[in-house]
User: What shape does this take?
Amino acid sequence: MAKITFITSDNEKIEVEGESGSVMELAVENGVEGIDGDCGGVCSCATCHVHVASEDMAKVGPAGEIEQDMLELDDNFNERSRLCCQIEISDDIDGITLNVAH
Amino acid sequence: MSKSVLPDAFQEARNGKGFGTVDDQNDPVTMVLGLKDVRKCAHNWKTFQSGGEEVGRIVVPSEVAIRDTRQIPFEVDPPEHANYRAIVEPWFKRPLEADYQASLKAIIDELIDEVLAKDSVEVVADFSLKLQSRALTLLLNIPYEEAQVWINWGTHVFRSDDTALDADKANILYDYIDQQIDKAIANPGEDLYSVLLDSEVNGRKLSKEEVKGVMILTFAGGRDTVINAVTNSIAYFAESPESLNRLQNEPEITGKAVEELIRYFSPLTHMGRVVTEDTQVCEHAVKANSRISLCWASANRDERVFENANEVVLDRKINPHVGFGFATHNCLGATHARQIMNILLTSLSAKVKNIDILYHQDNIEDWQEFQRKVGFEQLTVSFR
Assistant: This one.
């Protein structure tokens, strides 16, 4: 079980809980504005771009190489960028905050 | 496993110099082949533009000689692009709605039942074109019966059997769209024409010409591409019956299977851009006002990114393909196309046990240096 807080580009704060699957799927199920997940989570569309809160970077970890290549060409890229379809829900990420990039 | 195979026509050039060259009506195109290079160029809309003066030039073969109407938002660059895209984006996301999906499922199920009842079926004309046309009535939100008009046009809107571009054929579409716009002006409804006519950009209503530009894009962009994706899917399942079985037993992989088939098929081989300044691609000089193309089909087989790039790995987990393009101008119809494929795979796996290929004639595109199979001219099968 992990509790995750999304902050949208309109500064809306959405707190959700998930058991398994990807963070993108959790966001889409809960209608988080700005997370579309068009490709269903295979790292092809970059419509699930988030910025991980600085204090949570260690919990979430860095992007893999293929994910990083996608992110670097997306608008609003920074060193805390992740595609949240590539973040698996587990106890390890309980309590993190993600700012939606778009 | 030979008839359904789409060979990678670009491997040697991609791994060597990284680009190819094709002449097109004396306006040559430098084809960018590697995934990273394709993505970089697609992202860099200032240097590689879509919205230049010469309408139709980014299409390969160029449509400069047969089209004056600018396709919108496809042939508009940022920042204006965003205003147009914002108008059409919500409409083109409607395939995510449950009602839309239920209607699409009814269309696809009916068609599968129809072909199951026949001894043999020519898939391109009697399955894929019908499916594409009937599904398009949903995207346009117009009566189902209108699909028959488009089915009667045949498989190619712009092409004849003997020529890549045919102005007379293109005019059938353009004249039809003019008529439909006039009908919507006289009698507004809840169809895409009416919605566009009522839309505003920069504080004014869209002009008739702009509405026509969106409609041409909608018709042209989603015709051959969807027909190829559907036809190639049938060929693939004919030769990989275990995949149909697997989709039935593991429906949770259907979304991944759709992305993988789009990667493997790459229904649109490439799309052009006009170069705005002297620059380089793949360490090759390209001049201002020349053309490049972003070769999605090649990028999607780039073995530096995709393991077993020439195989269909139905549940491929990381699949950063560019089958729907990339960046600013990514495919507007992708949501519709993904739903078509998703429902097609689900219904085929539920209803069809076996597909036998009885006759096939490949559709091979001639890009001079490269001969690429993109699908089939004809594919006759029996469904059981």
Observations:
- Chain A has a mean pLDDT of 96.
- The first helix of chain A runs from residue 23 to 29.
- Chain A has three helices and five strands.
- Residues 2-100 of chain A form a domain with the Ubiquitin-like (UB roll) fold (CATH 3.10.20.30).
